[in-house]
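pasting for the record
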Amino acid sequence: MYPAKFDYYRANSVEEAVKLLAENSDAKLLAGGHSLIPAMKLRLTQPALLIDIGKIDSLKNIKANGSLEIGALATHARVAASADVKKWFPALANAASLIGDQQVRNFGTIGGNIAHADPASDPPTVLIAAGATIHVRGASGTRAIAAEDFFVDLFTTALEPGEVVTKIEIPNLSGRKSAYAKMSHPASRYAIVGVCAVLSMEGDTCKEARLVVGGAVAHATRLSEAEAVLKGKKLDAAALKAAADAAIAQVGDDAMGDITAPADYRRAMVGQYLQRAIQSALG
């Protein structure tokens, strides 16, 4: 499999990348390349120009200061290993450690992952659960997009043509409990079903829950019905079962299916993995 012919340019700054995108309507950004290059080899996409942003060091930083900021070019391996990420939002560190294999984690980037918006990828699920903000830059300036609004549909985001993801910002989750539970595809390690739970507890009572499912649906989605079931409740077995039933009902006919896992199986597993995520967060 060979891609169609294309031109290649390495950008040395975000400003240069934005300028090149503005000047070339048929251009694609290259970060880690683990999503784009296979698509090009299959000729599912045929950009006339690749703009390589992989050497822009300013997009690789991870820092915690009031909020946790993760540069778009931070690799999955770096996110998984970061002491700041593990302390601030352990569910994200865990999710990053479960992506693909070691080679994918060493080269794939969190910004490239969310811009591609594969429904079976892990970061969108945990970023929505965290209430994260996606920062982007284009020819007309910068924008901040709530993660919940960023993922629009299958392989579709709120990015406008010519915009570049620059960083992900996660608010202070101090005192909250979080976990990510995932059923992995045995070959690709993509999520057949993945659920992230972020819980605000008062004793053994749930003050607030943010529950998000990925893999089973076209894009990572808040399980608002299950969240409502848990609010103000003690998280015993009965409450978790009720939340699981609510999640299954909300997913309903939106559940996706394929040769690996049909829709009805994925739908049922949403309830199971929701309970696992909550139990792991509490544990």
